[in-house]
## 1
Amino acid sequence: MKAQDVLSYSFSAIKLRKLRAGLTTLGVVIGIAAIVALLSITQGLQATITRQLQTGFATDTLIVSTRGGFGGGFGPGAQGATNSGFELLVNDTQIINNIANVEMSMAIIQRIGNVTSGEGNLTATITGVDFAEYASIYSSTFVSESGVIPLNPENEMIVVGKRVSDPWKNGTLFCNVNDGVEIIWINATTLPPKKEIYTGHVTAVLKEIGGFGIGGPSDSGVYIPISQAESFFGTQQCDTIIVKLVNDDKTAIDSVSNAIKEAFSDQVSVTSATAVLNILSNVFSVIQLFLAGIAAISLLVAGIGIMNIMIVSLMERTREIGILKALGMKSRTVLLVFLSESVIIGLIGAAIGIASGWVLANVVAIVFSGRGGIGLGNHAAATGGMSITPVLTPTVTILALVFGVGVSAIFALYPAWRASKLKPVEALRYE
Amino acid sequence: MEISEQISKDERKRLMIFLVTIVEAVNLEKTYRLGKIPVNALRGVNLRVGSGDFLAVLGPSGSGKSTLLSLIGALDKPTEGKMIIEGVDVSTLNDDQLADLRRRIGFVFQFFNLIPRFTARENVELSMAIAGLNGAERRKRAEDLLEMVGLRERMNHKPAELSGGEQQRVAIARALANNPKFLLMDEPTGNIDSKAAGEIIGLIKKLNEDKGVTVIMVTHDQRLAGQSKRIVQMFDGLIVQEVVN
């Protein structure tokens, strides 16, 4: 029997039971749509985050923090306290600057504080940095939109991120250049806790960065000169030291990392931008695998549905199989007839599933973006507006198709095999 | 040649079966197992059918005639003895070879066994599709065959829209589609009214006499058996009588 005749025979059998075939197809559609939607959203999310990291993130930098401070990648801004009693100090940059291949290094002190302006108050991460060095390391993101970032800052100067200046996006600014603001920080290291107040004025508002950066500037950051931070927070201890290397060679990154760890007797962790990107990529692979695994369960259920329906079909059509065999159809052709019925269902289901999964992913992305994005990130005290564009790669499309068809074929294998093994005499006698 | 010149025409007609044997059963036995009890459906049947023959197998139900038919049709294999079709022992054939053999046998069943979702023409085409014929060729031949059985006008109707007699004529057209070596009929008039049965009998007889189609038929119908050239009477798994009409 010719392949096209097998197909048209199978198709006529499917058409006979439209509702049943439709429901079976729906099972495949749901499974494939779930897989495609989840994968294209996570891939879109990964692409967005990676892109933002690469812009807000210099690849030739290392981030030094006390163990457990920055360690696992990106958590909320580290407070710098360690269990071992080791403290990373602001002037430890001098030790690091002496290491070969280091161009410069700078300390960062961060605390969560409350910022008050004439318009209200916000909770934000207060970051003490050397403005000149910070601008030199993050030359593409620590850039002012209005006002000027002072290279030799006088006291009480504040640089704020875009989201701090304009948190509500409704025309009312929380603060603007030359506005006076008050930073309130509760010092909990003394008993009773002491309320510290820092009064300053905004000299610059940063250009919008989008999303978040690791170690680098953030839209929701409030920046004060490092010397001011030291006296305001009453500490010499810093949270992280950003190290700029002469280049971003892997050998330079590795040798400097090791030298720094050695210099601090292994009490610090050193994270390279490249390593963070790799960790992130690994995390996303695991998330994708996990989500795809969950979605695959629904496809498995669809497969069992196919098997069930094919067995029912086998019972109903026992006599028909007997007729086909009496007319001289070979066992393997009977197998093919049954398999191709299931594969047709799988193919249609997968095609509809890919299309509806893609639509679903876009709907989810729109809903997500409409809510103002997601608050991931190092300095994410306020939400950074991040829109996700779902990504559907040809690989995912083809895999979804293969998977849909494959599951249909595999679950139809047993019923098809049983159909092919029916004895013609018995099949013809079957009522 | 010498023999055939010496004997009369009638006798030659009868002896022809020995000249070109199509079907030969040798000590055919078939045992079924119903649970633990063996049932001897056939207990040593010997039979020869030659080209152009019209054989009717008569017998009460349970006499083994349906079993004999399924063995001749290569739908089943004997327990003992040999079933030889065109010189080939069926027992030696594998699954694929059996399928090939069945394409050259024209089955006609009591309950027609047409595919309900196909039209008359598609049903006739199906057996040719299974044999691997291409679409255009199939269509032409299906139409010719349906014209021959008198159903050209109704070839686009589905079985449910056809009478029993019409359905059986579609089944006969389907059976003839692949130029079979012989027609194998199981109670062809068993499920249709007597008027339609008369037409079917006429059609079968015409096929046998005019087109030389060999017919092997199991029947209860004395009227149909009376139209055949030979009648074999079965009882309890054995052939008990053979009559030449």
## 2
Amino acid sequence: MHIEVRGLNKKFGDFQAVTDVNFEIEKGQLIGLLGPSGGGKTSILRMLAGLETVDEGDIVFHGKRVNELPPQERGIGFVFQNYALFKHMTVEENIAFGLEVKKWTKPQIQERVAELVELTGLKGFEKRYPHQLSGGQRQRVAFARALAPEPQLLLLDEPFAAIDAKIRHELRSWLREMIDRLGITSIFVTHDQDEAIEVADQIMIINKGRLEQKGTPWEIYKNPQSPFVAGFIGESTIVEDVSSLRGFGGTGELSGTKALIRPEYVEIGKASDFELLSATEKGTVRHIHFRGSEWLVEVEIGATKLVTYRSLEKEILQPGNEVRVLIHRAYLFNDTDSWVMENRLKEDPMPVHI
Amino acid sequence: MSSMLQGRWWSWGFRSTVMLYFIVLIIFPIIGIYGQSFSSGWAAFAENITEPLAWKAVLLTVKLALIATVVNMLIGTMSAWVLIRYRFPGRRLLNSLVDLPFALPTAVAGLMILLLLGPNSPVGELAEKLGFTILFHQPAIVIAMVFVTFPFVIRAVQPLLEEMDASEEEAAYTLGATKATTFWRVILPNMLPGILSGAMLAFSRALAEFGAVVLVAGNIPGKTLIASVYIFGEIESDNAIGATAVSVLLLTFSFLILWTVNYVQMRRKNG
Amino acid sequence: MRRLWIGLTVAVFSFLLIIPVIRIAMGAFDAGWSGFAQGLARPETLHALYMTGLIVVIVTVVNTLFGVMLSLYLVRASWLGKRLKQLLNSIVDLPFAVSPVIGGLMIVLLLGPETALGALFNKAGVDIVYALPGMIIATLFVTFPLIVREVMPVLQEIGSAQEEAAATLGASAWTTFWRVTWPSIRWCVVYGVVLTVARAMGEFGAVLVVSGNILFKTQTATTLVYQDVENFNLTAANSIALVLAAGSVTLLLLMEWAKSRREVH
């Protein structure tokens, strides 16, 4: 279903949890609400579900204002962080619950439950109780239960938070696939950016109750609209004065401007590795850490420390080695403005304002 | 070295004293009464059990205790719910009052009921108008039993309500269930173990109650004579065997209930 | 809807608990302040209150000591087998299942003047049944599980890790108990003590049987109330009952206070 949220505000006592949030979601999209803990994303999700009241603003489903509707009547499915399975009911009974409430006939219920059990790979476990299942299995029951009554909107609150890392990966892909297949509009909350990037069509970054940016993962990564967003996605280093760096200095206009430099923007190597040697500067390797799939290298240029990744295929560096460093681009920001700027000494010398 | 030995003697002394105390205080009397009741042989035992006054008293006690337990299950569940789920002025006071029957002497409880329900009291007069008498009749016994067992169900249900996962309820709402449906199908099943174990404890206690009942029951044999008062009567008339026979019956029944409750609770913990 | 439930609950509490206590107060002052004072100042009342007080003190002290020690043994002792511990554990609760009258009967059967043991004590000049010792034993029996049941779960919950740490640091058994174990169980013991005092004070059936309710010799406050009611001396009965009720309410407040301190850990 098409969802529209306008001017959403919510206070808990004195604490302003959500401030002036506006967004629109197309039918069938899978949206990730991403942000630090306590930032307001779960509050937004619960307000969409009707589990929290709205102080100010409108929530509109398919053109109809639903602020006053209780959760029972919104046609949603909700998957809780700790599964919230009915402990005294079997897997089958849990999944059937929503259908019994809607007064489906017995044969209809049986058919639908069997369908979902098949879909979620829980065949053989129908008669088990929640305490007899693993974390991953419980979460799948939670999905099946939420999906059974054919909701128009699926809401998930940190669905993988309580699950082991390895299973988390499998469940993520499984979720993505399922939702694609069913074509159901879905919104999930997470504080794990890898999860959001991997699963969502679009991401909404929520910080301190405000919507910082909405866009595809790539858009957010490439064109962050605020320093927070830039720093939140990926691992970056903050440089106080970007004009001290080669390729960004020179004109006085940039002195005093801060910059966020992502590891992916930094290239290091021997002099012979580079075409544009003039764009590089000398640096010293300070630390290297093994990260399982690559090396994390801390390199120092003058007084500035930068972080970058290095492929395992390349020659291994040692602390103390001298290397050439090329900074491809940086995300610059001051009090009024923020933009991405390419290294002036590279082929394309024009800084790009967004 | 000697201090270690000294320590050894001390702890050996402590251990034996404590264990001896335990065994002598609890086990001896219980074995004693079982032994006594069969000391004159099976025949005498059977005769005393089947004495009509005796088993009528026991049956009456069971029946009234059951009624009192059911009453307590209802008002206890309701009270536990209200005390945990709602906030209102005086809630904490009421919560503390729940334990009053544990603190009050049973004889005082009996006296209270006597005063409140006697023929000169407003309640007694009202009842008379409606055509039934309370005091010295079975309703008074039930009320006395309800009073002394009041805290059991409440205190067993409250922790379950407190620990209950709020998201189970919310999940039910998101699946379309009304508050009533959610209560019956999601919340009540969670409360049930507490209601049942509290009820069993209450029943066990109601069976045994003496002080509160002896003052308000008419103690009319067959009609308002409960087991504990019957036993008391036998003791007063020096019929030790009659008293012990019925005692053993009542005891065995109560022990069975106690062990069932413990067993169920243990299984819940490990299951 | 919720107003209905709250209202009903308040009504139940009022009729069952609050109004009865008020009624006792009214009954005690039926004949005015002098009636109340008279009921209390009678020599039999004073003796009965004295007996109750004596029993409460002795029983509480003895059962606290033995109760705490037994809890420690049942949870921590390595010299008791697991099976044995479980068996003893289930026996601890038995007094709860015993009707007070039966409790009194058991003592009479074991230690009455016609029994071997009882006769032995009589020769030595000590009366057990129909005298204070018997009443104390009966009350000990009835209140026995209270402290044990409060302390044992806590001991199990906190585990022996801290005590083991103390042992490795060289602490003796006594030091470990006093400085490591006791602070954790302190409030549970207090709560258990309050419960024991309340129960000992209120004990009726067992004491009635064992004591023979002999005026001026073996009457307690509760059995005196019983006697007064039987003799239709309601004002006196109410007066004593009021004193007992006031004691109970105080104990109740202490209970709640100890409960809240107990939960802090």
